[in-house]
Design brief:
- By secondary structure, the chain is an alpha+beta fold.
- The chain has helices at 24-32, 72-80, 97-109, 127-136, 161-175, 267-289, 293-303, 315-326, 347-355, 371-380, 390-404, and strands spanning 8-9, 12-18, 49-55, 58-64, 84-90, 113-118, 149-152, 178-179, 186-195, 199-208, 211-212, 216-219, 222-230, 236-237, 239-240, 245-251, 260-264, 305-312, 334-342, 360-365, 383-387, 409-425, 428-441, 445-450, 453-465, 468-469, 472-474, 478-483, 494-502.
- The strands form 6 sheets. The chain has a 6-stranded mixed sheet with strand order 3-4-2-5-6-7, with helices on both faces. The chain has a 6-stranded antiparallel β-barrel with strand order 9-10-16-13-12-17.
- Strand 24 (445-450) and strand 25 (453-465) form a beta hairpin.
Length: 505
């Protein structure tokens, strides 16, 4: 039987995506009975906005993601933060270039999709053509025997808009979206900017738990104390519960969207978390930005899936490379081309790769990255590889995929420890230990054994000897150990120290 989901039903978070001027903001206006589009320069949405709507007594949180090509970055952010994506296509224009980009982002994010064919009131509307184009994008409508939900509507007149809301609620019910308002906070930053009066401002979607005024928070590489929570109408909230979209005031710096928000017990804890994240960023930046194909494939092995974005110098080169790559078959590992095209590798290709939930490699066959793509790849930790000979790429891919198949690991015990004393401090419990055999290293794993029963298996947060951080403590010496996520220790507990090693055939 499937495991029952815990928590209470929460509002679904819905991203609205599509080509410029296909009516995304007008659709939200029809839902909210507002006039957002009239207040935007040129009628184009300039930043991500989040709005709430109530239908049949249920709340839906909408993210209005920009459709203009200059805002591809924000579109990628919106897809990652959402539960359901609504793809808006104008019935008179059909699928356009940025419609395809939006489809790629939705597929990369792995979220359910509903297609809204808009502007059916126009004299040159052609719904049948849109149905055919959707099928060509592997989004076959239910009416044609597929599984893609399609709603034909007019955001301008309001016709069938309620049908779209009903489909959203139906899909949300099928997804069984739940959250615990009293549980740990899970919130995602979807936008951040510097306000001349209010300082750094961030927009967040609350997916689980509750965020309150005066909470100490850490998010990404910055921290702060929540001075105010403001909804889309400008009203100040005491607390933001699951499904809510709020602006957060009180952060020290503008941060990168996509960061998660963590509530901390005090200001010092928040600062430490932010400093830790900054340190991690410094460590990861050079290694991931310059990640080799071999390293990327090893990372993909853990996920059992690698995605490719492929650009080629000509249609013939593209077709040939796709045909050869699709012939690669390695047991237990999936290889998927999520986007392909002609021309240089661009910033939009990099942003699509960064929005993928699985490891994603951007590959050029006779195609090189432009300067913006290189800069974006470094900042988003995306690997770009260019090849002039297709078999060089194929040999590399096949060889690495073969090495990745079903690696096996074993535990190698390297030491044993006895707990002699316990020290309860603000960060948790420190165990005063004596190494009875072997050794303990900072990167080792620990099993907690009590009465011959294993209570915990996990990582070491800190290893100290005589008030100094150390990397190893040998047999016959004392040390202090803090375990990650486990404080239920007792004097007399045995700690088994082990390493995880790959079994080499």
């Amino acid at each position: 039987m499937p495991q029952e989901r815990k928590g209470k039903p929460r509002p679904s978070v819905v991203a609205v995506l599509g080509h410029i001027d296909h009516g995304k903001t007008t659709l939200l206006d029809a839902i909210r009975r507002g006039h957002t589009a009239k207040g935007e320069p040129g009628g184009i949405t300039q930043s991500i906005g989040a709005y709430h709507a109530t239908y049949n007594g249920k709340t839906i949180t909408f993210i209005d993601t920009p459709g203009h090509k200059a805002f591809t970055t924000m579109r990628a952010r919106g897809a990652r933060a959402t539960d359901i994506a609504v793809l808006v296509i104008a019935a008179d224009d059909g699928i356009m270039a940025q419609t395809i980009e939006a489809i790629d982002h939705i597929k990369a994010a792995g979220v359910p999709i509903i297609v809204a064919i808009n502007k059916i009131d126009k004299v040159n509307a052609n719904i049948d053509r849109v149905f055919t184009q959707l099928t060509e994008q592997d989004l076959t409508p239910e009416e044609l025997g597929g599984d893609t939900i399609v709603v034909s509507l007019s955001a301008l007149t309001g016709k069938n808009v309620n049908d779209l809301l009903e489909m959203i609620l139906l899909l949300a019910e099928m997804e069984d979206l739940r959250a615990d308002p009293d549980g740990p906070l899970h919130a995602i930053i979807i936008e951040s900017h510097l306000d001349s009066r209010r300082g750094p401002v961030a927009t967040a979607i609350i997916k689980d738990g509750t965020l309150r005024e005066r909470d100490f928070i850490s998010t990404g590489s910055t921290c702060g104390r929540v001075k105010a929570l403001i909804d889309e109408t400008g009203h100040r909230l005491d607390a933001a519960t699951p499904g809510k979209a709020v602006m957060i005031l009180g952060l020290q710096h503008v941060l990168t969207p996509g960061a998660t928000v963590e509530i901390c017990v005090d200001q010092n804890r928040a600062k430490r978390q932010a400093e830790k994240q900054r340190a991690n960023d410094r460590k990861q930046r050079p290694s991931r930005a310059k990640m080799s194909v071999a390293e990327l494939f090893r990372e993909a092995a853990a996920e059992k899936k690698l995605k490719l974005i492929l650009k080629a110098s000509s249609i013939g080169a593209l077709e040939a490379s796709i045909r050869e790559i699709e012939n690669i078959s390695v047991r237990d590992v999936q290889l998927e081309i999520i986007h392909s095209g002609i021309g240089s590798i661009t910033e939009r290709d990099v942003l699509l790769a960064s929005s993928s939930q699985d490891p994603c490699l951007v590959v050029g066959f006779g195609s090189k990255p432009d300067s913006k793509a290189v800069k974006s790849a470094n900042s988003h930790y995306v690997s770009i590889k260019s090849y002039d000979i297709i078999y060089d790429l194929l040999d590399e891919i096949e060889g690495r995929l073969t090495q990745m198949v079903s690696p096996e690991y074993k535990e190698v015990k390297i030491g044993e420890i006895i707990i002699r004393d316990l020290f309860h401090v603000s960060i948790g419990t420190i165990a005063g230990c004596y190494v009875t055999s072997g050794k303990v290293t900072r990167d080792a794993k620990i099993k907690v054994i009590r009465n011959e029963e294993e209570l915990f298996s996990g990582e070491i947060t800190s290893l100290r000897r005589i008030k100094e951080d150390v990397s190893v403590v040998q047999s016959g010496r004392e040390c202090g150990i803090k375990l990650q996520g486990f404080d239920d220790l007792q004097v007399g507990d045995t700690l088994q120290v082990f390493l995880i090693e790959e079994i080499v055939p």
